[in-house]
Amino acid sequence: MKNHFLFPYWTRYLGWGLVVLHVPLSMLGRSHGMINIMDPQPRDQGIFAGEHLFFISTTLIMSAGLFLVAFAKEKIEDEQIWQIRLDSLRWAIFINYLVLIISLVFIEDVPHMLELNLWVPLIFFIIRFRWVIFRLNRSLSREG
Hints:
Layout: H1 11-31, H2 50-70, H3 79-106, H4 110-143
């Protein structure tokens, strides 16, 4: 990956802020009845119904946050980081398609499938990328 396709390093913190913001917003919406956990579809058939807009806005907040975290530059970007990033992205796509195929067979809830398809690749990418970087740093500190 080229450096100019990544966000600046500081956007990682903005992304984590959006991810953290999503959790209380979702809980607040569920506690006030804005979103029914079992049925996030709007009760009145309009696309601009309150429940639907709340569902879309919280989903977009979480997606934007994960996207910023996943594609923010590291302090030091070199070929090894690019290779780890590419390998993590490949594994994230594999896992996403596995989850998508399983959910298509076993789940009938389309909005939750949309959330899965949006978030699984980014979450798995972040987890795997951070884990490989952690292991690499740990092995380098043991050598030194």
